[in-house]
Design brief:
The chain is of the alpha/beta class. Helix content is about 30%, strand content about 25%. It is built from six helices and ten strands, in the order βββαβββαβαβαβαβα. The strands form two sheets. An eight-stranded mixed β-sheet has the order 1-2-4-3-7-8-9-10, with helices on both faces. The protein has a two-stranded antiparallel sheet with strand order 5-6. Strand 1 and strand 2 form a beta hairpin. Helix 1 packs across helix 6. The longest helix has 15 residues. The radius of gyration is 17 Å and the shape is globular.
Length: about 250
C-alpha cells in the first residue's frame, strides 16, 4: 500500500530526557529500527519555537514515523529550551540560538552515551543555525540543512564548518522566504565540502507529500545510501494510520 502523510511504520519508540550543562531538562523521543540496530542516527534540530517550531514539526514527525523501518535509521527528536509539543515542555526559555548550544550538546551527549552510531545533524530553518553554530562536535559525521536562512549563522560559522571538514548538504526551496538557491550557492561557496540542492517548487515549510519525500530521500541518500531510494509503497501489514491526519 502507498505511504501517505499519516503513515506510521513500525519502530521501537521511547520517550527520552536530555539534561543540559546549565541544568535544564529537555523532553524528546528516540525512534529505533524494529528488531535490529540502526546503521546511522539523525539528531533533529527543529524550526523556530517562537513561530511554532518543535520536535513534532511535520518533516521530523514523518522522519520518525518512516525512516527507522525504511532506512534502518535512529531518529532522535527533542524540544529545545522553552519549547512545547505533545511530548511535553522542555524547561527554560528561548535563548535566541545562543543558550541552545547547551541543548545541542545535550543531544550529542545522549547519542554518545547510548552508543548511537554514525550521528548526523538534521537542522530545519532555526535548527540549521544551531547546526552551523554549535554542531561542530567530533561525534558528528555530517549535517543536512533544510531551508537554511543564514541569519544567526554568519560567514564566520560557515568558515568554521569548512575547517571542521565534515560533509554539509543544504536543501534550499525554490520559493524560500529567506534564502533561495542562487544566493545559497554563493553563501555556501566558502565551505568547499558543502553541496547546495535547489528544490523546484518547494517553499520554506516543505508542505506537501511530494516535498516530504524529496527531503527524506535526500537525507537517506547521504546517511544510508544503501536504503536509497525510499519506497513509495510497503506491505499492508506494515502500515498504521494516525487518526485525523491527512
Amino acid at each position: 500500500m502507498e505511504i501517505r502523510s499519516s503513515t506510521v511504520l513500525p519502530a521501537r519508540r521511547e520517550p527520552i530526557e536530555l539534561h543540559t550543562g546549565d541544568g535544564l531538562r529537555l523532553v524528546g523521543e528516540l525512534a529505533l529500527p524494529p528488531g535490529r540496530p540502526p546503521v546511522a542516527t539523525l539528531v533533529c534540530l527543529h524550526p523556530l519555537p517562537t513561530h511554532g517550531g518543535m520536535m513534532d514539526s511535520h518533516l521530523y514527525r514523518k522522519a520518525a514515523n518512516r525512516l527507522p523501518a525504511l532506512a534502518d535509521l535512529a531518529v532522535l527528536r527533542f524540544n529545545t529550551r522553552g519549547t512545547s509539543s505533545e511530548r511535553g515542555a522542555s524547561e527554560g526559555v528561548f535563548g535566541d540560538g545562543e543558550e541552545e548550544r547547551f541543548d545541542v550538546a545535550a543531544a550529542l551527549e545522549y547519542a554518545e552515551f547510548h552508543d548511537l552510531p554514525n550521528v548526523w545533524l538534521v537542522g530545519w530553518s532555526f535548527g540549521t543555525e544551531l547546526t552551523l553554530k554549535w554542531g561542530r562536535d567530533p561525534l558528528v559525521t555530517g549535517a543536512v540543512l533544510l531551508s537554511p536562512p543564514l541569519r544567526r549563522a554568519t560567514d564566520a560559522d560557515l568558515d568554521a564548518w569548512a575547517a571542521f571538514g565534515r560533509p554539509l548538504t543544504a536543501l534550499v526551496p525554490e520559493f524560500d522566504d529567506y534564502l533561495r538557491p542562487q544566493e545559497a550557492k554563493a553563501r555556501f561557496a566558502r565551505v568547499p565540502q558543502a553541496e547546495v540542492v535547489g528544490v523546484e517548487g518547494a517553499k520554506h515549510l516543505w508542505v506537501g507529500e511530494p516535498y516530504v519525500r524529496i527531503v527524506l530521500n535526500e537525507i537517506v541518500r547521504r546517511v544510508n545510501p544503501a536504503a536509497h531510494p525510499l519506497p513509495h509503497e510497503v506491505p499492508h501489514e506494515m502500515l498504521g494510520e494516525v487518526p485525523g491526519e491527512g
